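User: Sequence in, structure out. Go.
Assistant: Echoing your sequence, followed by the structure tokens.
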Amino acid sequence: MGVRVKVFEDVPAAGRGNLAGSREEAPRMVLDIRRDKIGEFFEIRTAPGGLQEVVVLNVQPREKHLLLLSRQFDEQGRFLAKQKFLCGHDERHWFVAAIPENEPVTTVASAKIALKPEEVRTREGLLGISRKASFQRRNSAFIRQGEWFFVTTAVKADPLLVLKDEPLSRGNGGKPHWAEECYRSGGDTVYVSARYPNGLTAPEYKKLPASERNRGFRIMKRDAAVYVRGKVSHPDHETVTLIGWHRVLMNTENRSSAMRFLAFLD
């Protein structure tokens, strides 16, 4: 694939977000994208105790993608769990994406399909999108930017509720995508900050000391139907321009428990 890999063994591993406190629940292996003076590289860190097995299941050199299988065992060699990751290059940077455990993928192609939201797969089927076109970042069914899919829709947005320069974030502390115009419908109101990227409900927010409530909170919607139009930008991706309202759908990576084995945030 033309990329460097560094492996560090017996290093305490911390993945995304706040992991459960017990040693058994902590990740035994963490994948990350790091950068040094030469450029980006994949980093694999394995925690002390137990064994890890890493197997490359499928490689597509021309696409610069591979499917990785990770198996974890305890100190007695008993099997604990397995995860699959799609690793590769998308536009400008290398990435790692966790595959949902209920998706029986064995190839790069099937991993890409597994990461598509069900709504996108259904729409592709209805429109008769070819297999080749389905792997492109743009076809008549959707436009994709990183982990976000945009599907054209006929929603009628309330002009008073349309927000300008609004971030799209999956709440894991990664760099948000910025939408020129955004409209949200339904969902739960939450208060989001750098310290609380997943958001606090109104009762949780009100319990905070007044001094902390003044520390850069932004009111957002959790689990809302989100629609955007105009330009959508992100430093790691080419800016896309959406003509008319598009429904925003996130890839299926959030369904995977393997996300906690990733330190990489886009």
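User: And one key feature?
Assistant: The chain has a mean pLDDT of 86.
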